[in-house]
Amino acid sequence: MKKQICIEETELHTSEGRRNFLKICSVALSALIGIAFSIPLIRTFISPALQQTVSGSTGLLELGSIGDCQVDVPRKIKIKDVKLDAWTKFPPTEIGAVWVIMDKDKAFTAFTSICPHLGCGINWDENSGKFICPCHDSFFDIDGRVLSGPSPRGMDTLETEIKDGKIFVKYQKMRLGVSGKFPA
Amino acid sequence: MKKWLEDRLGLSTLFNFFMDEPVEGGAKWSYVFGSALIFVFMMQVVSGVMLATGYSASATDAWGSVYYIQHKTFSGWFVRGMHNIGSSAMIVLAVLHMAQTLIYGAYRKPRELNWITGVFMLFIVFGFGLTGYLLPWDQKGFWATQVATSIMGLSPVIGEFLKEVVQGGNDYGNLTLTRFYSFHVFFLPAGLMSFMAIHIYLFRRHGVTAHWTPGELELKKKTQPFWPDQLFKDVIVAVVVFISMVMVVWYRGGAELQSPADPSSNYLARPEWYFLFLFQLLKYFEGELEVVGAIILPSIVAALIIALPFIDRAKSRSPLKRLPVMGCFGAALTCVIFLTAMSVISDSGDERIQKQREESEKIAHIAIELAENGIPPQGGASVFQNDPLYSGEQLLRQHCLTCHNFEGSGGNSAPDLTAYNTKQWLVGFIQDPNAPKYYGKTKIDVMPEYDLEEEELSDLVDFLLAQAENGKNIDTELKETGEILLEENGCYNCHTYDGIGGDTAPVLDNFASDKWLRGIIEDPGKNEYFGQLNAMPAFKDKLSKQEIDNIVHFLQNKRKKPID
Hints:
The structure holds 2 protein chains of 2 kinds. By secondary structure, chain A is α+β, with helices and mostly antiparallel strands. Chain A contains 2 helices and 12 strands, in the order ααββββββββββββ. Chain A has a 5-stranded antiparallel beta sheet, with no helix packed on it. The termini of chain A are far apart. Chain B is elongated. The longest helix of chain B is centred in the middle third of the chain and has 33 residues, at 174-206. Chain B has 2 domains: 22-363, Cytochrome Bc1 Complex, Chain C (Up-down Bundle), CATH 1.20.810; 389-560, no CATH class.
């Protein structure tokens, strides 16, 4: 095109030293603006990884009255809680389920129904008297211990409290696929 | 290593192709505006993409998502602020670029298409501003854009159809937002970049239009390479623009967010500043003439601007030899500035408008504070339900005013709730309980009037109201005084207090407290309240606990405030 020929024909009204100075300055200043602007941009981009964006209420959630429980019969109770999803607050909706078991001494255990292996919902099989996870066939006994299957640990217990004849539970999600029980 | 890349990618050749352009006459500060525009546009794209990671283009969620970006996302306020000020920067730089090229006659043969593609890009930039303004779905964006689409509707013949295509249907809603968003992030960027490619290609083909005075030989002698000489000046200007933008964003705390769009409200609609001249112009064309000011005149002016290269018949490029063009340009620019100034002055001088602005600011603040607790799923304006006072008042008006009167409106078959249980209300009540304002219109007509001394009456009411806050822990002296007054006036014949008295009138323990008031609303027919003579419905099954709490909160708040 035109310009290639032009360069050879005309004298460039500049000097080598000046050109180098301008080149270095241009690159340096552009880099500065680039870095300056990219800092807030990156912060915005990674922001959700640094905050809690989806959450429920803190504290204990009510499950029901203890009068409805029978000894050594696991009862599946759905948990209702408000959900805060970024800017939206949902009124109480079902967010999960727990298995509640009363022993002969009237002590209560609550298991989350989420399998510690990969997160599927655990069922109770009356006939065999075992908890079974349908996804990968993990079997647990009534105390939540692993009988067989790929689950790395037993069923996760949740903190419970009894007040005025009602059971309350601290609903939490735990990390999956590891042998230790840690909050997610 | 460098040679390996060079053989395969040919980067230096590519680099030289773009950068090694000779600028005849030398690099100049007057040429920087085009590059400045590209710089700001690139920043808009990057900041826009980042905003898109958090923005939701639905009528329910748009406001909430923008609130979240502004107040919860790290540096979100800054990125949004830069994007907002960037749109103004684009307009300013575009006008400067247009002015410079016009003065230099850079639209003349053979560069006519340069000019025309440039003007199209100007219109697209206005389009960006218009579509972006609506996206937060706040009062400001909603109402200003309503005006804009209504103006589109004025277009002859195709008006209504055009309006419905643009707004996504017969009214503003979800489809308006999805449509405007797709314009803003797909159609318009594609359009702008296409025209930009053509514009830059044409510019490179014909070369820069240098100052009109030096002759061709002189220009050739002073030729400098685009890189680094011109690009250096461009970078300096980019730095200045960047720092200016950052300073404005920092100083203002980013872009504003008005309260969520409320189609049922009256809001003072004003477009963004760069459309104010059109807004002002419309004021001079009323009724039937509106289409002239809104569509016809602007279209004629736009057509003239586009056709400029063909209208200009001057022999020389020098501005002094193109006085008609210079004159028209100067006049047009002056008009636009004048109209913009008139609009601003007119608004700032109007007290009613200033008041409305202040109100809007207050409501915006409340909305943002309430959003902290999370916005209900219906989104947008439902955030006001979070406010117990606001909600309480709404519920009172909705459920109670069939019978009760409140601040001038409502029924009159039940006690007036204006300033309910304030000292004045109670003083009047004890003196004349069967007045129409109190229980006169109800079936409860058994309490006698009490003609007490002013001081005694005051003490009695003070004693009763002390229950509201402190329950059993009221000042012992006050309690004693109160009990004596209750005794002396025969109150114990019907009322009970602290275990003593009759049971044919409301119990006076915890009088006027939240608990007491809640109890009346829940079940006024209970013996501890109005018993058998009661005609007020029990609300414990009609309203939720939260709703009753809000009504109580509202009434108690009114009671504690001194009357203006």
